[in-house]
Amino acid sequence: xxxxRVSRMTLALSxxxxxxxxxxxxxxxxxxxxPAPAAAAPAAPAAxxxxxxxxxxxxxxxxxxxxxxxxxxxxxxxxxxxxxxxxEIGGAKVTLELVPEDDQADPKQGTIVAQKxxxxxxxxxxxxxxxxxxxxxxxxxxxxxxxQISGSATNxxxxxxxxxxxxxxxxxxxxxxxxxGEYAAKQLAGKSxxxxxxxxAYGQGLADEFEKGAKGAGAAVVTREFTNDKATDFAAxxxxxxxxxxxxxxxxxxxxxxxxxxxxxxxxxxxxxFLTGDGGCTPEFIKLAGDASEGQYCSLPGVPxxxxxxxxxFNDAFSAKYGQIQLYxxxxxxxxxxxxxxxxxxGSVEAAKYLPExxxxxxxxxxxxxxxxxxxxLKGGAISLxxxxxxxxEYRETVGGGAPAAPVAAEAxxxxxxxxx
Amino acid sequence: MDIFVQQIINGLVxxxxxxxxxxxxxxxxxxxxxxxFAHGEVVMIGAMVALFxxxxxxxxxxxxxxxxxxxxxxxxxMAIGFxxxxxxxxxxxxxxxxxxxxxAIGISIILQHLAMLIWGRNYHAFPPVIxxxxxxxxxxxxxxxxxxxxxxxxxxxxxxxxxxxxxxLGRAMxxxxxxxAIAQLMGVNINQxxxxxxxIGSALAAVAGLMVSANYSIAHYYMxxxxxxxxxxxxxxxxxxxLAGAMLGGILLGIxxxxxxxxxxxxxxxxxxxxxxxxxAFFVLIGVLIFRPSxxxxxxxxxxx
Lengths: 421, 305
Prior knowledge:
The structure holds 2 protein chains of 2 kinds. Chain A is of the alpha/beta class. Helix content of chain A is 44%, strand content 19%. Chain B is mainly alpha-helical.
């Protein structure tokens, strides 16, 4: 009798979990605007106006929803600006339409919405936000011949799969991890470093590259620990790291974990310096870590916003409309602009026709001068390092990218060069 | 040695929170034979209300501010717990058991997205109003806040045990749990008793919510899901339907997770890392359920679920 009850209960639990998953998957579909009817319009009397659909994918629900919404706002802003100016491609008047989708930062969901965008016949895709969702989705876009530009997926694998449709407008983790690893070993004088990652494609990839960089620069990796992208309690792994007496702790993951992690380091009396990548390089990190954030480090591909060619103007326009920039907004904005720029040069909105033009991009964006190498990676991407001083991210230095890509980066750092503002 | 003590302390703090949340699951299951999957969401709402209360009145002294924030969270959670039962479970009391399970999940999703609409998608940081000092015991560090959490959790559990064992309401709850029909014949208003169960469970959830958000200084509309799942596991581990079981299960689960994450790598020579932390906990759960299907100290009561 008892066994009967327990088995019934476990059955109920698994059913419940399955249902819970389904329930969530339904939600974004309902929220997305019905894309189908808009496509059928062009033949109507409305002159020769064509509607071009651009898909955008990021997590809009779940723990990274704040970053996802930030990206979507940037894409929307780019599209609204282009529409307001009036866009003509190949002699026809064009109206851009954003098709926003939610992948919940979940690789499975990433492929589902990717297929959905392909079925909706979008002309191009901007996104996804996470490397873990971008990589599996990129195969679907490649098979359908739809160009994809991500503003934030930094895992090297994304552009190494040989997909002609995959591009990114941000330096990848090989560059970033190497810079971070060397920085930890040299500038922070880390003889022994401990590494934590969140087991996502992004966190793990960055941590792997960091490990190579740190070892190459002479530091010893004393332990490698793991968490996940939904965790809030790190006391157990930090206690273990404390026993190894590491000088530097590196975390590959997002701000939602990096913040509480820095805080718990302090309450456990861990004295090591804390270093994280672009995922933790946000104002949220400081809010979540409180005074434990003071003196900690992060890196960000590209140059600080106020040193970006169009950084100030973008910041003013964006924050007036959507509030403070979280992280990747300027990159996503550039991704949309690069895509439309390629359409203009090709004189066509058809994927097959404008795809070759993306590779030939030479576009002065908000973040940098954007050119792609043969794989679709940004040429000469710079990496900047920041440290928290007085409750704000303060710019420290920029490594790499000295070449034509970002001439401004080589200038002397401004004293008040904080990243947000 | 100091590392071992530290891991036990880590586990105890985490376990106290699991135990408080697990009590909510186990009380409802004990009385109605129903798993209230929306309970994790109630914890989240408790955390959010407390956090925003503290934010809004951060000028007040801490000794007044925190009890007030707690009171606000408890009131809101009690109201929500009461409404959940009224809206989602009472109409289905005589329906097949699967129906209230599905409404429970529905309510959970509704609450989660309601919280997202009200408080936004961002993470919220708990204002640093609580002075935290670190203390050393046997070479391990524990903060005053953590001591406070363990003490409050213990006090809540003791209070609940007294309530169930010694009061009129508690006796009525036990009677309803044993046989609702007979309890009703004996003059127990079972509708009132079931409402009271939900209200008390939700109040405990509010306390847990405040603890979680203050300890990790983070609150988010999504936080209830994983916490609820862990607490449910704790309740099953200890023996669902049994109050002492929920407490034991919660604290055990916290300690197993801490020790698992801390030592699994060394024990397996690096073959399994700390990413197997959760798997370790579920391994123990499966082991316990094989040998004691009704949980560690679950009562072998007759089937009436």
